[in-house]
Amino acid sequence: MKVLIDHQIFFQNRYGGISKIFSEIIRRLNERKIPFDTSVSIGDYNQGILRDPKTKLQVNQIPFFSLATVYFGILTFFKILRLPYPEFLTKRESGILRKSLSKNISILNGSVNRALTNHEYTVFHPTYFQDYYLSNLKESNTKMVLTVYDCVHELFPQFYGSNNFILRNRKSLCEASDHIICISETTKKDLIKWYPNIHSKNISVIYLAGNLSHHVESSIPFTNYILFVGNRSDYKNFNILLDAFVSIAKENEIHLVCAGGGKFRRQEKQWITSFGLESYVHQVNIDSEQFLANLYRKAKAFVYPSLYEGFGIPLLEAMSVGCPVLCSSIEVFHEVAGDAAMFFNPKDHLDLRTKILELLGSEKMRNELVQHGYIREKKFSWNQCADEHIQIYQSLSNHK
Predict the structure, then answer these.
(1) How far apart, in whole angstroms, are the C-alpha atoms of residue 57 and residue 104?
(2) Residue 179, domain CATH
(3) Between 363-377 and 313-320, two packed helices, what is the crossing angle to 10 degrees?
(4) 154-to-130, 167, 170 alpha-carbon distances in Å
(5) Are 38 and 167 in a shared domain?
């Protein structure tokens, strides 16, 4: 058995998110001394550096004359003038970066295609939904595993456009796969609903994990706050948290800390200013997992208001360090959190407001959620996740 994992998601994401999944799998393939390669070297990925496996040269260094240079110049202009970044610009960052690095990405695509043509690997696991390899795969003996993280593009096409490459490619890639991995039963059910020709016997559910308890406790610049983590746009449903927070902040002297997701956009700043909450609502960048762990650890509660997710790693991250969880009453959150979270209607800000006040007013309730969270989080582990991936790789390698 020899596995090839490609480079797509490492150009698509900064450290974290989906790339976290593959980083954890790669670490354990290496620990178990299972033969594998990645089409891009990720040894320095947590520092934002990707390298060519052969030359060791950095392949994600933006050329001076490129679309990305213009893009970041425009963002710098807004920063100098202390203006919020336009939302249409921030949504295009990953696409602009990929376009500016297209020459290097094309070289890596070529190396993957040569490996497939030469039958160098028994299993190929692409990390995202570009289809640059599809014609070569059809001529190869290599088996393909595809991971489907969610069906958000199918459920919310208004946020992505009908020409989105994931919507264009998902069906054909699933049909070309020898095995599909979904990260929750909810995602599996959604995938079969949208693509009924995919046989469920070719789909496995492998849960993710999210333990941050190994990070040591340290001080942070906030006290008495509720926490929101990650992207705030579209189906993440952040606005409902803002609406619920209006009548809570000053009465209870509670703050809202938004970790990650970029600086507040124009509309968000206007909302915060209109209610006089500038000193109550804060945005901070996540510069390390240790910092994130301590944000969870010191929070009165973690609020996760999404309308849809494929899994929900932040639920487990919060539980692992003793943070009470308040989340949307959506199917996948019930699947992951079980009895270790308090749930609210994600379309009703008054319900969210009521639940936040209940938590803030009851130390007993918070402690009960914390204890249930410690137990629930232990049901998920990256070791188990990696073992189940390896079992699939082995099974496909033995049936060539």
Answers:
(1) 11
(2) 3.40.50.2000
(3) 110
(4) 16, 7, 10
(5) yes
| 175: Cβ contacts below 8 Å, ≥ 6 apart | 197, 198
Find the mean pLDDT for residues 284-308. 96
Q: What pLDDT, on a 0 to 100 scale, did the predictor assign at position 97? A: 74
Structure-block tokens of residue 13 = 């994401």
Mean pLDDT across the stretch 146-157?
95
State pTM to two decimals.
0.92
Say whether both 274 and 327 belong to one domain. yes
* Domain assignment present for 73: no
Element (H, E) at 268: helix 266-274
Average pLDDT (51-56) is: 94
Confidence of residue 119 (pLDDT cuts 50, 70, 90): very high
90 confidence band (pLDDT: 50, 70, 90): low
Give how many domains the chain has, as a whole number: 2
Residues 187 and 201 in one domain: yes
Phi, psi of 283 (to 5 degrees): -120, 130
Find the domain containing 233 and state its range. Answer: 225-377
Beta carbons within 8 Å of 82's beta carbon, 6+ residues apart: none
Residues 19 and 124 in one domain: yes
Whether the pLDDT of residue 73 is over 90: the answer is: no
Q: 246 and 194, same structural domain?
A: no
Query: Do 196 and 279 share a structural domain?
Result: no
In angstroms, what CA-CA distances link 107 with 83, 104, 131, 277? 38, 5, 15, 49
**Would you state the pLDDT for residue 21?**
94
| Tens digits of residue pLDDT in 337-389 | 999 999 999 999 999 999 999 999 999 999 999 999 999 999 999 999 999 99
Q: Give yes or no for residue 93 having a pLDDT over 80.
A: no
- 126 and 43, same structural domain? yes
Q: Who wins on pLDDT, 146 or 269?
A: 146
SS3 for 381?
Answer: coil
How many other C-beta atoms lie within 10 A of the C-beta of residue 325? 29
* Domain contains 364: yes
In a domain, 83, yes or no: no
- In contact, 44 and 75? CB cutoff 8 Å: no
> Is residue 47 included in any domain, yes or no?
yes
* 363 in Cβ contact with 181 (< 8 Å): no
165 with 31, same domain: the answer is yes
Beta carbons within 8 Å of 333's beta carbon, 6+ residues apart: 304, 306, 309, 312, 315, 327, 341, 343
